[in-house]
Specification:
By secondary structure, this protein is mainly beta. It has one helix and nine strands. β3 and β4 form a beta hairpin.
Length: about 160
């Protein structure tokens, strides 16, 4: 094991995930009784899919960028906006915006046709496509509720 020896009481072996699973236990696998203490799997995580809002009046609103690329507004709705806002530490979304409400975006879209159920922990877990007929005026955006669930407005 890259990170040192571990106890030999393995739960799983021969794990074969597709990437669509919600949990490691959902991946096809065998029981772990054929593993030794030097055979543990490990991971090093990268935060290459950072979520951020750009063009808004503060950290609570703006066009959505995921992995430094804009999200297209095709089929964008409040469920999708809720997932984004919760990822950012807010209570949820007050509004889902379309048509690059917070300014034109680059045309190198990361995802389109996002369809969240609302219970996902990341927009990456929502059904989506990588391609759509999107242009710089098709940026998806959000207006998030504050951490206590109130709408933020500047006067």
């Amino acid at each position: 094991s890259e990170f040192g020896n571990v106890p030999e009481n393995f739960l799983m072996s021969h794990v074969n995930c597709s990437g669509q699973e919600d949990s490691l236990i959902d991946c096809p696998h065998k029981d772990g009784d054929d593993c030794g203490s030097c055979m543990a799997a490990g991971v090093v995580c990268k935060n290459e899919y950072k979520i951020e809002l750009r063009g808004g009046s503060g950290g609570h609103d703006g066009n959505v960028f995921f992995g430094n690329q804009p999200v297209c507004d095709k089929n964008w709705d409040l469920k999708d906006a809720n997932v984004v806002c919760k990822m950012l530490g807010f209570n949820g979304a007050n509004k889902a915006t379309k048509s690059s409400e917070f300014g034109a975006v680059p045309e190198n879209f990361n995802m389109a046709n996002v369809a969240c159920k609302g219970n996902e922990i990341s927009i990456r877990n929502c059904s989506h496509s990588g391609e759509a007929d999107c242009n710089s005026n098709d940026g998806a955006g959000v207006v998030c509720l504050d951490t206590l669930g109130y709408t933020i407005s500047l006067k």
